[in-house]
Write the structure tokens for this entry.
Amino acid sequence: MKKILVILTGMLGLSLMGSMLSLIASRSKTMKKMFLILAGMLSLSLNSYAENPLWLEGKTQDSYEITVYRSASCGCCKGWISHLKDHNFSVKDVVVNDVNPHKTRLGVPTQAASCHTAEVNGKVIEGHVPAQDIKRLLATENDIRLLAVPGMPSGGPGMDMTGAPKNAFTVFSVDSQNQVNSYKQYKDY
């Protein structure tokens, strides 16, 4: 049912946008504003229905407070925050002009950098780390100080828009001695 809704929403939105494009060429600024609002609403509605069911697996009732530092302009960060909320995280969303000072303060290696950085229970989370992996980290006794998914791999939580390729990616861990290990690999998901 969800997929049918996405397809119908997309078809309706594309049809409306096509009609609007022809009108915009000869109309006022008001028409242009209406088109931009419609396009924005369509993109938001498509993104909200585009989750990969894999990212909902392993959901538990455990709840943690997490602080996320992100840029206002980054849509995938918003998608990742929604993913965290789906897994019962209580998210403090901190919008900043520059995330890099937070990365530096928290000891995120340059090679591990992504678009957003988070703190939860004394641990650092960098990038599109699945909520299931964060909860597994927090539920076990360990020496890990950071989990990271470098870059922005297509298909990961927050990057799983409809039609997006599902690229393989690795969640890396960094311990208190700065030893880097593979925490979890995602292939063929």
